[in-house]
Amino acid sequence: MRIAIFSETFLPGTDGVVTRLCNTLDHLAEENHDILLFAPSGAPPTYGPAKVVGVPSFTFSLYPEKKFARPWPRVGRILRRFQPDLIHSVNPGFLGPAAIYYARRLRVPLIASYHTHIPSYARYYKLDWLEPFLWWLFRTMHNQAQINLCTSEATLETLRAHGFRNLALWDRGVDLRLFSPSKRSDAMRERLLGGADPNRRVLLYVGRLASEKGLERLRPCLDRLPDVHLALVGDGPHRAELERVFAGSRTTFTGYLFGEELAQAYASADAFVFPSTTETLGLVLYEAMASGLPVLAADSPATREVLQHGEAGWLFNPLDSASILAAIEDWLGDAEKRDRIARRGLEVAAELDWSGPTKQLVRHYYRLFEAEQRELTADVSG
Q: Which of 19, 193, 309, 346 has its CA 20 to 30 A from that of 58?
């Protein structure tokens, strides 16, 4: 099959979308597909089985570390030469309209996947009035696709409530070759602690440092827990403000870590904390679980699904500092529960190799392609 993928973000950037796409391409390399990937400029020329076409890009004030693709006339010429069997728009935004347009022009099926609750971000940037418009915009784009893939059941239900159609599931996954308790490193643990007392417990966060992640809510808890050190792995537009908020506390900012260093950071901490409620899935939760960490996360439909309603982690009310503190204190004080949750997390993650979600995606591709072929045959015979 000849598959054209339009992705709003790709390497050298990093987020859950890039993680999913890279792991998917790694597993698609085992199958006989021709893949053309359109992504913002700066990406490598190839990745796995995909030839990557860099599209001229720009930066956006709320995501200054990311590049976003501009409309580009050459896309059509390149696509016509490639002659795709279908087009997949990953997290359609700035590139999404091009995927929709060329799917129509070339008369090939369109599949889209939804990864980020961008409309809900508006309220964190004091743009509440914009949220209804953003839901309308993304619903309009996604409803042009014959299949809209969701990365969790919780997201599927949210999109259904907002009028999105043709919904289907694209399951979760985690790189079990990379993330493992065996990656624990004394040197990395010292780095996470910033040279502080090695006997302190390390609470780890991995992800963008952005307003919608709610990381400020952890500061009052740190002030009450002298034996806990917070390590924030990542970067983003909110870093300077977070450095001000956490000044004088037991907190280390490492910046982004990748590959083996990231795996070591997970395995060298004592627990993973995640105060965000805006996730569609939260792949970092699975990476933490695969690394043997007990997880403490804000209660939301997506995290509730990941943590099996509290069986595989602690859930807290992110708007109540007492609830966050109680979850951390329970983690610190109940060794039996801590070990039970860590074991359950490992069991959950052990079943989530990326090969399964990739096979599921390919089944969606073939279902859409075969339906298109049947329609074309019917048109010809009619």
A: 19
